[in-house]
Write a structure and sequence with these properties.
The complex is a heterodimer of chains A (about 260) and B (about 475). Chain A is built from 13 helices and 8 strands. By secondary structure, chain A is of the alpha/beta class. Chain A folds into 2 domains: about 120 residues; about 120 residues, Rossmann fold (3-Layer(aba) Sandwich), CATH 3.40.50. In chain A, helix 12 links the parallel strand 7 and strand 8. In chain B, strand 5 and strand 6 form a beta hairpin. Helix content of chain B is about 50%, strand content about 10%. Chain B folds into 3 domains: about 130 residues, Fumarate Reductase Iron-sulfur Protein, Chain B, domain 2 (Orthogonal Bundle); about 240 residues, Rossmann fold (3-Layer(aba) Sandwich); about 55 residues, no CATH class. Chain B has about 475 residues and is α/β, with parallel strands linked by helices. Classes of the chains: A alpha/beta (about 260), B alpha/beta (about 475).
Amino acid sequence: MSQTTNPPKPDTIYFFGTCLIDLIYPKAGVSAVQLLQRERVKVIYPQAQTCCGQPAWNSGYRDEARQVARAQIKFFPKNIPIVIPSGSCAGMMKTHYPELFKGEADEVEALNLANRVYELTEFLVDVLKVQLQDLGEAVEVAVHTSCSARREMGVADKIEQLLGQLSNVDVKEQAYKTECCGFGGTFAIKEPEISAAMVADKTLHIRATGATQLVSQDCGCLMNISGAFAYQAQHEGKAAPKAQHIAEFLWERTHG
Amino acid sequence: MAKPTEFRIDVEKALGKTEVRAHFRKAMDTLMTNRRNQFPDDAALQALRTQAQAIRANALSKLPELLEQLETNLTKNGVQVHWAETTDEANQIVLGIMQKHHAQSIIKGKSMVSEEMGLNHFLEERGIEALESDLGEFIIQLDGETPSHIIMPAIHKSKEQISKLFHEKFPDIPYTDNVDELTASARRILRDKFYAAPVGLSGVNFAVAETGTLCLVENEGNGRMSTTIPPVHIAVTGIEKVVEKLSDIPPLLSILPRSATGQPITTYFNMISGPRKADEKDGPTEVHLVLLDNGRSRIYSDPELLATLRCIRCGACINHCPVYVRIGGHSYGTVYPGPIGTILEPQKEGLKVHGELIQASSLCGACGEVCPVRIPIPNIINRLRHDSVRKDTENTPTQDAGTRRKPLEAAIWQAWSWSASHPSLYNFGGKTATQLRGLVPNNLGAWTKVRTAPKLAEQTLHQQLKALGVDHE
């Protein structure tokens, strides 16, 4: 859940980039760091960081997930906020590390880390209270909020609060907005038919809004939805809205 | 009972039926809208959920004592209490009661526990007619089907299909696709059966320990008729349905129908507190309660899995599930479908039989969000995934724990874990992968059947932020 009382603006924060952004969408990570730095916050990116451990956790391999999580706990020792450009990885660290480390020798360290975790849009809105100035062309945008940002982190409204500050951005609401896109990590691999049916509906509803741009807080959903858009463009000649992580979209439109 | 391998085949078949899928979507949309309209004030809803959760959690925390108290008070009220460890024992108990009365037929109000028991089939094999009187159950029984939803058993059937079915099974009744006329026909057929049946059966929504009262919610009045017209009434329920006090009922009764069908209250609410008394004009002369365990004690023994037993069977998790709405209830191959079935069935029947179901969730959390008693369904799915591959199987009561651990998959996770906990290895891997990005195939199996393959970046975020001079400690 979103913090009820937010700390004052910190001088220094940690940035946890997530493995998906590291390997496939680094531009989203760079943009997020730039957005944070612009607010005069010193960003530390521990080079030893890897992955939050969620893939193994969701597959039932808890020992393997814990080993990876334990490493991250060591890499983020200082008592400063950890900002994460993903509701899913933030949710893993914030809500599932406490479960994963229950009764372990380093449970206290895990709880301490969990308490310092913020999802990026949550941090921009609630802690930094950013004020954005739109420098971009008029555009119609659809928002897909990840299920973890919505239900684990309780930060679904933050992305729209940020977009609401952009004068040239018109947010279009798709049908079944709160429904899962069908990614679900290994779900997309283990239940490919159901996942395919879900993303087919998701793309249909987003395209129906006429928006030319899709933004999300989570690159997992974006990989799924934009992959389906690109496939449908190639094979069915359908329009493919441009899909971007919210950080990348915000940075592109607001830096002079 | 479904074989483990049938799930995938059923899913593919179900996804291919676009008309049925559209029908399901419409039905679930209506149910979701109805529920939303019943809870205009979110704070009030959350408070009521907390209250309902507390009532159910309290009951479970004292389950053994409450069950004893329930038995004592029911017995005092003249209700005969029977305990069944297995579904077979429960069936034998029902059969025994029927044989004592030389009963050749039984009329049934809706009961998912009787589905769990496979009671109809069991009785029919012994030459006893079991007739469903709930309209939805009546329809699917005509067609030889099982329920596809726990509160709307015939939700998969269209009006046209039902019209045809009635015409085929009752050729004397003129064909109609008028819903009111169809319902009237069913009512006429059932009315005679109610008067003729020597035994009536029902489920139980809540059993009150304090007073020995069996509560039953229903909309059609068939529940009341099944429990009052035949001279013998048999109620069947799971041992978890007990609550402590009569004052626990109003909050549960307030949240159950609103979560289920989006009704403020059901048309009928029955409180059964014993057989007909000497000065009473109607009601059964004998009332029995069969309390079924069927794996529930095993679930009860684990502090995390225990939450599964809080369920009040409203079906809200099913109505809100993006997987259920696409594959329908029958694909699950279980008595209880949807999210509640996904956590209950593998625990009840074991991971060998229904372990496949726990993969059929994107862990989106929609189920947990609407559950009126706050069962953390996604967490329990996650736990069962762990149970299915864990090595320390002595630490979980789940049947067949560890049996879904595959050596190759385990080795992959171990290798992944090793690499992702050793930064130099991870970074080397990341850099190498991005350098070889051209080699990533465009065909990634099932993923690329409907999507293009993701492309690795030219440079990792680690490399880019280092180049930009971002502090690293």
